[in-house]
Every structure is written in structure tokens, then in C-alpha cells.
Write a structure and sequence with these properties.
Elements (H helix, E strand, L loop, with lengths): L1 H26 L10 E5 L8 E10 L3 E12 L9 E13 L11 E16 L7 E16 L3 E14 L17 E13 L1
């Protein structure tokens, strides 16, 4: 329960930062890049994994961006994992863009590289009856496309270490399983808009 409260507080703080940044961005665009500094994105393919994942990015003038990505999982499909599956998570990452933005010029695409850390709290009845935590970290790389200065397509490929704290002797079915422990890939596609 304490972890749930902590995650809720972190998500609320992230939303407050996003609202403040959006207000500043709406009142004044960055004159140096000619672009909006905030982006709100979602991951459509995670819907197939019974998860809603939304990402907020704040882009800095020094060709970097801070990414905050909360996620919520809720599903009771009997054919998937043989039972109920629910939980929440938070990913934090930094993106270092490799193409320098020039003054008054919007970059249509950019390549980035950066570290991430992640936390998940998952209740998967197939694995164990009570919830368990997953911690991890690694490196993401990707390509971000900005279309018409408003629409964003972000393709991410990366990987890192996952470490679930599962009680007992349980082996996972694969690298994308909730209970997987070890080095795992990350592949994602985000769609969104600038703010």
C-alpha cells in the first residue's frame, strides 16, 4: 500500500510538472528551435498487453529530453496468463539527441540515445497470488519523427536488466514474461503531439 501511495504521488508530481510546462510552452514557444518543448505520447501496442502507457517528454535547448512514462495494467482474460493480471509502473529516462537543432529550423527527425530506469508492481495470478516488484535499467536508442511541428512518431529499441523479486522457485516462459529475470530487449512505438 505504501508503494502504491508513493507511485501515485510521483505520478501526481509528474502531472503537475507537465501542466506547468504546458502553460509556459503555450505562452511562449522556444525562439531558438521554433518548436514546442513538451510532448505527450502514448504506446498503442501496449493495449494488446492489457496496459495503458502514456509518456511525457520535456525537451531542453541543449539537445536533451527528460521522459516520464507511467503505465497501468488491468486484465482478466483467462486465455492470457491463465488468470487476472494488474499493476502499475513508472519509467524514467533521458534522451540525448544526436542531431543538433539549428536556429529557427524544426528538425523533422532525430536520433537519440540515453539511459532509463524502470519500476513495476505487478499482480499476476499465474506467477504468484500476491503482487511483486520488478526493477530494471538500461539503454534506449531510437528515432523520433516530428510531422508538421505537431505530431510525433517515436520508435525505440533498447535493452537492459530486469530483476523481479518473486518468492519461491518460478521460471518464466520468455523474455517478455512478467517474471523474467535477466537481460531483456525493449521495443516500442509511441504516437503523440507537441504541446
Amino acid at each position: 500500500m505504501k508503494r502504491a501511495i508513493l507511485i501515485t504521488v510521483l505520478v501526481c508530481l509528474a502531472n503537475a510538472v507537465a501542466i506547468q510546462a504546458q502553460t509556459e510552452s503555450n505562452s511562449q514557444k522556444s525562439s531558438e528551435t521554433g518548436a514546442f518543448n513538451n510532448q505527450l505520447l502514448f504506446a498503442p501496442f501496449y493495449f494488446f498487453d492489457q496496459t495503458l502507457m502514456i509518456s511525457y517528454e520535456r525537451i531542453f535547448q541543449g539537445n536533451g529530453a527528460l521522459r516520464i512514462t507511467p503505465s497501468f495494467t488491468l486484465g482478466n482474460t483467462r486465455s492470457y496468463n491463465n488468470g487476472n493480471r494488474e499493476g502499475f509502473g513508472l519509467d524514467l529516462g533521458y534522451k540525448a539527441f544526436l542531431i543538433t537543432n539549428q536556429k529557427n529550423r524544426m528538425t523533422l527527425f532525430n536520433v537519440y540515445l540515453g539511459p532509463y530506469i524502470m519500476y513495476r508492481n505487478i499482480k499476476n495470478h499465474r506467477v504468484q497470488p500476491e503482487a511483486f516488484n520488478v526493477l530494471g535499467g538500461g539503454i534506449d536508442t531510437g528515432i523520433k519523427f516530428t510531422l508538421g511541428q505537431r505530431f510525433v512518431l517515436d520508435i525505440t529499441v533498447g535493452g537492459g536488466i530486469r530483476n523481479p523479486n518473486i518468492k519461491g522457485d518460478f521460471s518464466s516462459n520468455g523474455i517478455f514474461d512478467d517474471a523474467f529475470k535477466g537481460i531483456a530487449p525493449r521495443i516500442n512505438l509511441f504516437l503523440g503531439a507537441t504541446l
